[in-house]
Predict the structure.
Amino acid sequence: DIQMTQSPSSLSASVGDRVTITCQASQDITNSLNWYQQKPGKAPKLLIYDASNLETGVPSRFSGSGSGTDFTFTISSLQPEDFATYYCQQYDNLPRFTFGPGTKLDIK
Amino acid sequence: QVQLQESGPGLVKPSETLSLTCTISGGSISSYYWSWIRQPAGKGLEWIGRVYISGTTHYNPSLKSRVTMSVDTSKNQFSLTLSSVTAADTAVYYCARGKNAGRFDPWGQGTLVTVSS
């Protein structure tokens, strides 16, 4: 099975900061990677698909990049509503889907 | 827009079977895969499996021996059963639509299932 790791596992930042989260796959997954945001008590929300494509309606301060085994998720200027947990998810070896362990982003 | 809503018992006894249903509104169950994903309290997300309108299913190998999924097109619903549950199956269970092979969107709000006697 493909294993996903994320770093850091938690992160403290301030409004206006630029934040970067990384996700690494245990083997080449080309660009088969999505990013989700989850707020407490809520379902995850799709933000980025196919590694770098912004889901419709998602603010442009969110972006993703990478291919192969190494991926990056960036928030260019943190807003108060962005404090949440972020998960990467691979779909290369269909029909098996795996999520990263998550990165909790909170207020410094 | 499409909305999903999970329903089912919130408490299941150990060794018994967990049964949940996801009702789709604002759209048709046709032409998509429909997945179940769970999340133990304070932990990450685990994909359980998916079902297509044809009845084709794919399950997470770690749960395959205990999982069954089905579709009821007349009710625009799909279902999950998980047998022989233990405390380790206690989690929030989400249903979600599978888009373009690998994306999950939208998700239901989730339902907490507790396994306890």
